[in-house]
Specification:
18% of the residues lie in helices and 38% in strands. By secondary structure, the chain is an alpha+beta fold. A hairpin with a 6-residue loop joins strand 8 and strand 9.
Length: 263
């Protein structure tokens, strides 16, 4: 089984290839939370709270609707999208938390394990500025155990999965695309990339390259000193780069409602 709560720090990167080049990379941090142990979060000091206002707060309302128990809601959603829910016995969430009362996350990932092995990713995707949510179920084909993945080299072994895009995320990307997910086993490192393909051409890629760190009150304080309001920072960056894309003359695609099919 995976260990408990942790903290992943590293870089998020975006690169647009077509119709014009545009890219960036920023430092970022995500919580890695065992959904069976959410009530224990306050052991990490006053900066982190469970269902209370703080610098960082876990709030059930910020995540997918359904069962009051977030783990059960994740399992229910996986089952609705075709997963064998009986094979899931442990779920970890990779996500920011509400920050001084504000929550925003373009992508939250639920890592679903069965008998000690990563089986599925449930991706909770939100779009800006429409504030809709959609869910993709990504099967993981690697047989590496979490214990083996604790080695950084094992963490770099990636599972590859492609499916049709059916949720309008950015006004600068059309809906008629394919997503390619490359999923590394979370361990000392966490690697995840999503590439958009259109007419067999690579259009856009986004990725995380993160390193695991112990979660502690001291670590939370240091992050807050460097970045006191990370959720606001993410929102600002989204609109800042949207302005740059407009200035570069990229076409804008009309918004379409999410489709029923998730795969």
């Amino acid at each position: 089984m995976q260990a408990g709560h942790a903290w992943y720090l590293g870089e998020v990167g975006h690169q647009r290839y077509l119709p014009k080049s545009h890219g960036f990379g920023y430092n970022i941090q995500f919580f890695w939370l065992d959904l069976d142990q959410l009530a224990t979060l306050e052991q990490y000091g006053s900066w982190l709270k469970h269902e209370k206002f703080a610098a960082f707060s876990y709030r059930r309302r910020d995540y997918l609707a359904g069962d009051a128990n977030l783990k059960q809601a994740v399992i229910d959603q996986c089952m609705a999208l075709g997963a064998d829910a009986d094979a899931i016995d442990q779920v970890f969430m990779l996500s920011p938390l509400a920050n001084w009362g504000l929550y925003f996350s373009p992508l939250t990932i639920y890592y679903c394990y069965g008998q000690g092995k990563l089986r599925w990713l449930l991706a909770e995707v939100s779009n800006t500025p429409w504030n809709e949510r959609h869910y993709y179920l990504v099967p993981v084909t690697s047989d590496e155990s979490p214990e083996a993945a604790a080695d950084a080299d094992q963490s770099r072994q990636l599972s590859d999965y492609r499916h049709r895009k059916n949720f309008h995320v950015s006004p600068f990307n059309p809906l008629d695309m394919l997503y390619q997910w490359q999923v590394g086993q979370p361990g000392a490192e966490l690697l995840l990339s999503i590439t958009n393909w259109r007419s067999q051409q690579k259009v856009f890629s986004a990725w995380f390259e993160l390193k695991r760190q112990p979660l502690s009150a001291a670590a939370l304080k240091q992050v807050l000193i460097r970045t006191p309001w990370p959720c606001v920072q993410v929102v600002f960056r989204i609109y800042w780069h949207a302005m740059k894309l407009l200035c570069k003359g990229l076409p804008i695609y009309s918004h379409k409602k999410p489709e029923d099919s998730a795969l």
